[in-house]
Amino acid sequence: MVIYQLHVGTYSIRTPGVASNFLDIVGKIPYLEALGCNMLQPLPIDEQEDNPGMGYAGADLFSPDFPYVCRNTTQLATYLATINSLLASKQQPELRLEHIRSGPNQLKVLVDLCHLHGIAVACDVVYNHAGGFSSGGKADDNCLYFMDRLQNLGNNNDSLYFTDQDRGTGGLAFALWNDPVSQFLLDNARFFIEEYHVDGFRYDEISILLSTNQGNGWDFCRKLTNQNRQLRPRLLQNAEFWPGEFPDIPNSVLPIIAPASTGGAGFDVVQHDTLRYALRRAVQAASFGAASAVSMTAIADALYPPNLDHAWRAATCIENHDIVKAGRDPRVPVLADRSDHRSWYARSRTRVAMSILLTAPGIPQLFMGQEFLEDHPWDENPAGPNLLAWDRLNDLSDHTAKDHLRFTQDLICLRNQQPALRADWVHAFYSNDQDRVLAFHRWLEGTGQDVVVVASFAESTYWEYDVGFPAAGFWKEIFNSDVYDHFVNPIVAGNSSGISANGPAMHGFSASASIVIPANGVVVFAR
């Protein structure tokens, strides 16, 4: 899987200042299919108190968010033409206008068309709290907090649904020790699976859910993962869980992914930040110039997600909605060159970070715009100023965005074509912090389908750099990030069709070769 995370309201705006909707995302499905990502992960899409909103202040967990639903008949007719064109391309019968009038049906159309184009859909759900209501705030009378219609006498524990616990979410935690409350959330997950045919969930802040509910939180997680596994055995259950975030939850991720039958929570994968930290720190360190220290060793140590039984249990990224939200951390091109986010330094360093992410073990996740070198921060406001710069893809005077999109497409294609890049196994056999060079070996056990990845944050090209290879003979250069600068780069630094690994034993391998490593570049070899 390669996950693509987006915010429905700001992804594909047609009218300035008006949030994009489910049917706008439908129009982007061919783009996403061409990109190669095969799991769409929208930020929460249920009804929110805030408009615009990030999606993490749910007011009605069973209703699509109002701004994400088109109600204009004239506009619906235009959307219908797009929908039917996509259906026809997959030899499917047409829909009629009445089929897409309701909000739930518009969401169903999006999911169905994603499926027809080879893209799974995972919903981001928030079961640790609801609404924007906290002990110091106010809540709208229509919000989930008032569903029980019980007068609040000053103690939020008087609510039938909520506690007085707020661990920084801006909303109150569900009282999961009450069976009807727990069942309400279990029914919500069932609803998404049975009504919308979703293929997975990203569960927001399971750390907070466990901390605010203690033993009841663990019981709820087991019920949740067991139910969903029975309903759809291949469902991806992805927990956002940060070990040690609170003193009363484990300082280890293993109980979260352990089977419910053995006392674990039963989730499949977790969001993992070790590689993200290493890559972002390396990009930032490199931006201080050729003399600055860049820890390639830290990247090497982070390639296999620590403390996990399988690398595929980690969902890895270098950008996500939390990281690049306006006012938080910058996008990677900004980290790479704060003075010019479109410079060669910004472009090439970003390519190195993305190449390592997409050739490393785990489930890689991209955040919208990352694929075409978006440098704006993100926020949820459809009126701007931080909207995706889609127009850059059509800029005839500057092909930077288009070149980076092609780079991302080809890199994802490489991952799909090379089974070793999707396997668990990785061996970082060489890292040199002084030279800013890292080399690692990927393989699929017993097949001989070996891949060697060599990455450099050096500001000049290495024309004859000795690197070990797992076996002697010819190794084809199957990817070179330098090709994508002013595509096709007329002065690309590379290894032509490949190299002959006929040198002496080196770096723990029986053979070696002298290779070209482009400045701020990545080259990939395969037998």
Would you give an account of this structure?
The protein has 527 residues and is an alpha/beta fold. It has a domain at 425-526: Sandwich (Immunoglobulin-like). It contains 14 helices and 18 strands. The chain has helices at residues 8-11, 22-26, 29-35, 73-89, 103-116, 179-196, 206-213, 215-231, 254-257, 274-286, 296-302, 332-336, 344-359, 400-417; strands spanning 3-6, 39-42, 46-48, 58-64, 120-125, 200-203, 236-239, 269-271, 314-317, 363-367, 426-432, 437-442, 451-456, 462-469, 473-480, 498-501, 511-517, 521-526. The strands form four sheets. Strands 1-2-5-6-7-8-9-10 form an eight-stranded parallel beta barrel. Helix 6 runs parallel beside helix 8 (215-231) and helix 10 (274-286) packs antiparallel against helix 13. The longest helix has 18 residues, at 179-196. The chain is globular and about 75 Å long. The two termini are 24 Å apart. The mean pLDDT is 94.
